[in-house]
């Protein structure tokens, strides 16, 4: 579990084939403190297991499924990545509950400067948009952010100056992929509603969950 508050920008040392997967080596310093083999570190929002440690950084493995579902497959030597250690009982929850389980990748659609703030619009897969709501949480490349606006297949966030200086997103280009993890609470609510509605019949349970549908089935 993570908070989405990036602790450090790491730099990819190399990404080499290792059996059926790849070994990703990252140079860093802050996240090495207190880290031992087997610990979890979020790399661009992807929960990965530390398999090797040295004085300059750590090594983790990338399975084929991870490379397929995230933007980590595009990393090359010198790429910067957002890093965060997993939470402890004494960790401040400055962001929100982040699992490090990327749902899909989106595409950066636009950047727009507004004085010292930076607005970013992201195109997202249609199946994720039902979980993305105005003023709700979203995790982008491991960064906990608040959704500002939502469209049919896009949403926007805004970055204050401090955040811009401490995450990788401002260094990306329009058209680049970004890892998206939606707020897991939305998934739980959807699942619970589907479970409850299943009692009204198979056809109803398979119907889209809309405000009108909920009213029709007694969920006011």
Automatic annotation (TrEMBL):
Ranges occupied by Lumazine-binding repeats: 1-96, 97-193
Keyword Transferase: yes
SUPFAM superfamilies reported for this sequence: Riboflavin synthase domain-like
Superkingdom of the source species: Bacteria
Pathway(s): Cofactor biosynthesis; riboflavin biosynthesis; riboflavin from 2-hydroxy-3-oxobutyl phosphate and 5-amino-6-(D-ribitylamino)uracil: step 2/2
UniProt-recorded Gene Ontology molecular function terms: riboflavin synthase activity
Any GO BP annotation: riboflavin biosynthetic process
Keywords for this protein: Repeat, Riboflavin biosynthesis, Transferase
Record-linked Pfam families: Lum_binding
Catalytic activity: 2 6,7-dimethyl-8-(1-D-ribityl)lumazine + H(+) = 5-amino-6-(D-ribitylamino)uracil + riboflavin
EC number(s) from the headed UniProt entry: 2.5.1.9
Enzyme class: transferase
Domain Lumazine-binding, first and last residues per copy: 1-96, 97-193
Reported function: Catalyzes the dismutation of two molecules of 6,7-dimethyl-8-ribityllumazine, resulting in the formation of riboflavin and 5-amino-6-(D-ribitylamino)uracil.
Subunit annotation: Homotrimer.
NCBIfam families: PRK09289.1, ribE
The protein's name in its UniProt record: Riboflavin synthase
Lineage of source species: Bacteria, Pseudomonadati, Pseudomonadota, Gammaproteobacteria, Chromatiales
Annotated gene: ribE
């Amino acid at each position: 579990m993570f908070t989405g508050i990036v602790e450090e920008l790491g730099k990819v040392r190399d990404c080499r084939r290792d059996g059926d997967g790849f070994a990703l080596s990252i140079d860093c310093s802050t996240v090495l403190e207190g880290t031992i083999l087997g610990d979890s570190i979020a790399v661009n929002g992807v929960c990965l297991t530390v398999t090797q440690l040295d004085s300059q950084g750590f090594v983790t493995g990338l399975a084929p499924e991870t490379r397929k579902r995230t933007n980590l497959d595009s990393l090359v030597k010198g790429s910067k990545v957002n890093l965060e250690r997993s939470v402890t009982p004494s960790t401040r929850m400055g962001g929100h509950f982040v699992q490090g389980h990327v749902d899909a990748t989106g595409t950066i659609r636009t950047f727009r400067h507004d004085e010292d703030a930076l607005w970013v619009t992201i195109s997202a897969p249609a199946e994720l948009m039902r979980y993305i709501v105005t003023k709700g949480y979203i995790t982008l490349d491991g960064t906990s952010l608040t959704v500002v606006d939502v469209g049919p297949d896009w949403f926007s966030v805004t970055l204050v100056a401090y955040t811009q200086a401490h995450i990788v997103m401002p260094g990306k280009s329009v058209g680049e992929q970004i890892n998206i993890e939606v707020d897991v609470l939305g998934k739980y609510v959807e699942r619970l509603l589907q479970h409850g509605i299943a009692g009204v019949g198979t056809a109803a349970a398979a119907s889209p969950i809309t405000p009108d549908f909920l009213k029709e089935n007694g969920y006011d």
